[in-house]
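Thread title: Can someone regenerate the structure for this chain?

I was given the following input by a collaborator and told the matching structure tokens would be attached. They weren't. Posting the sequence so someone can regenerate them.
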Amino acid sequence: MKNKSKRLIYIEEYVSINGINQYLFHSGTKYDNPVMLFLHGGPGSAESIFAHAFQEKWEDVFTVVHWDQRGSGKTLTKNPDKYPTIDLMLKDLFQIIQYLKKKYNKEKIIILGHSWGSVLGSIFIKQYPEEVAYYIGVGQVINMLENERVGYEKVKELILQAADKKSLKKLEILGDYPGDQFDINFIKKCGKMRELQGKYNLAVKIGLSIVITAFKSPIFKLSDIFALIKGAKANEKVLEFLFAFDLKPESAEYKIPIYYILGGNDWQTPYVIAQEYFNKINAPYKKFYLIPDAGHMTMLDQPQLFVKALLEINNKEI
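Best answer:
Regenerated them for you:
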């Protein structure tokens, strides 16, 4: 591992969490800074290998810790037969927070949840608000099926505007989307939907640029690619949980400050759904940031505007 930026804190480690060794990557400039735990998306898509591309300026004010969740990234490579459930992941998260509090001598930890990580984070802060200083949701998921329905309508609208007959045919082949049943057929359809959304910059586009970004990571290993490929299978039970996930029937009362930083061009987890829910939230403090010309990978798409939002949040909370 190369610490080219000469960070004071630059650690890769495997920590025994809930019966298995799980991967953590820490990076920061001061031990006094607040500690932010980054909960990646997917489930099964570790984002630690992209950290170098967006978080250098974050580390001026936060110690950022990436956790490759059970069933993802380097943790999956280390434990190829240890597949997650939502209950296991919540227990893992609780133990990791205890470890970080002790390691950095902190009373509380900041949670930033991205995409699937926003589901895990939102559930956790309801159960254990006393462990968390505040929560930041990015690509915030409120209702998975509603995400898919709204995202479908948006890409259909753009396809029709462009008179893109080839893409329209692909859309028609999907039939009733997303449907109401979680199975292998839905997973396949979802993959094809992401391809269409990616073509119109409405969702993460898996292309050469993102692959090159991963390859440039100082912590990248070839095994990370194999873990990403295996991630969907390893997270089948969690994906089934995500399919039925819906925050709306739950109480919108939160005991900690809540911040959403969303991409104005994110239709993979459509910002319009999260914004509607955010308006109903009752919390000690809350603030909504909409980043223009940013998609689902908001922090990669508009890193300067994202950092500006983080600095404002930090200034409010210190």
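The longest strand covers residues 9-17.
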